[in-house]
Specification:
Blueprint (H helix, E strand, L loop, with lengths): L15 E10 L2 E11 L4 E5 L6 H8 L7 E6 L12 E4 L10 H11 L4 H14 L15 H13 L5 E5 L7 H16 L3 E5 L3 H7 L2 E6 L2 E2 L3 E2 H6 L4 H7 L6
Parallel strand pairs: 3-7, 3-8, 5-6, 6-7
Antiparallel strand pairs: 1-2, 1-4, 8-9, 8-10
Helix pairs in contact: 2-3, 2-4, 3-4, 4-5
């Protein structure tokens, strides 16, 4: 993806800043004054135990959930639909439309405002980047789990977002599918897309992460270089997580 193609076409979103975010549900504090900034190039990895608030934080940054207090800003202003195509989001369980793999991507491009004359070429480029060209006319919902997740990833990247948020995109996938998805993610990062990846896999974090942030019980630590996180964890909870011990 040439740098010229990565220029926002529907308004800038960087930096994305979550400042002192708080979310309460049913009397529970799920996100506790968490702050995170997405701006630096490369891939930031968000790690932490189940129930830490990681998935919810992604949805807050994407503008899908409104915090009880604190703010989310995209390039200095509140998130808005007109810039939503600049922020991609890939869930752990992809949702496929009842149409072909190619049509899934063309639909995403249409929603992002890509001109009709450009959609086919961009959609085929996206399929090719994920090694899915041979499945272009296959119904998306009959693809294997790994193929669906690759399709979800290249579909999110097809409109050329500035930022891509990923929630455990390789959970429960076989090694070959995981490698294919990691390759696409790394290529996107190398081409200038900012990525925020939620993962429980320390090996994946070591392979891909430029910076790592640790979240536990709704609190988040500021991102640090991956080597610092693994070699010198800042908290006992982070050390326990790295060592594979239970973190309550």
């Amino acid at each position: 993806m040439p740098d010229s193609l990565a220029t926002p076409s529907a308004g800038a979103v960087l930096p994305i800043i979550g400042d002192s975010l708080v979310v309460r549900r049913g009397g529970r504090l799920l996100v506790d004054h968490a702050s995170l900034t997405m701006d630096n190039a490369g891939m930031t990895v968000l790690m932490g135990p189940n129930g830490a608030g990681k998935s919810l934080l992604l949805r807050l940054l994407a503008g899908l959930v409104t915090p009880d207090s604190g703010t989310v800003t995209w390039a200095g202003s509140s998130p808005e639909r007109s810039r939503a195509s600049r922020v991609g989001l890939v869930f752990q369980r992809p949702v496929m439309l009842r149409r072909s793999a190619l049509a899934n991507i063309r639909f995403a491009l249409k929603a992002a405002g890509v001109p009709r004359a450009e959609r086919m070429e961009q959609a085929m480029d996206a399929l090719d980047s994920g090694g899915l060209s041979h499945l272009a006319e296959s119904p998306a919902r009959v693809l294997s789990g790994g193929e669906q997740q690759r399709l979800a990833l290249v579909r999110a990247l097809a409109p050329r977002p500035s930022v891509l948020l990923l929630d455990e995109p390789t959970a429960n996938l076989d090694p070959a599918s995981t490698l294919a998805i990691e390759t696409v993610m790394q290529e996107a990062a190398d081409q200038g897309t900012r990525l925020l990846l939620v993962t429980h896999d320390p090996g994946q974090a070591r392979r891909l992460g430029d910076c790592i942030a640790f979240m536990c019980a709704g609190h988040i630590e500021a991102p640090v270089p991956a080597s610092d996180f693994f070699d010198h964890p800042a908290t006992g909870e982070a050390r326990a997580f790295i060592e594979g011990r239970l973190v309550l």
